[in-house]
Specification:
By secondary structure, this protein is mostly helical. The protein has one domain: Helix Hairpins (Orthogonal Bundle). The chain is built from four helices and no strands. The N and C termini lie far apart (about 40 Å).
């Protein structure tokens, strides 16, 4: 991901796609909304390939956000799983 972003010039100070945490978080949410579009008015995925592309976009923005925020995402995920194991989950 870093090589791709550098190749596009997005790490440059004058980049129109500056790699700030805020910009990446915004892009992450926008891409997640595009995932939801695949389920609008239906329970079935009509275009699995397009959905796969949107999921990949979400993952890439998430990884980039974690990286520039200096967060070890694997450690964060493992910690969250451990926390959730101890959590009480009320019945709906």
């Amino acid at each position: 991901m870093h090589a791709f972003v550098a190749e596009k010039g997005w790490y440059a100070p004058d980049s129109p796609k500056e790699q700030t945490a805020r910009n990446l978080a915004t892009s992450l949410v926008l891409e997640a909304a595009e995932v939801l579009e695949h389920f609008q008015w239906t329970e079935e995925v009509r275009d699995p390939e397009a959905l796969a592309g949107e999921l990949a976009d979400v993952a890439l923005y998430l990884l980039q956000l974690a990286s520039i925020s200096e967060i070890d995402l694997e450690d964060a995920i493992l910690a969250k799983l451990a926390e959730n194991r101890e959590r009480e989950w009320p019945a709906p």
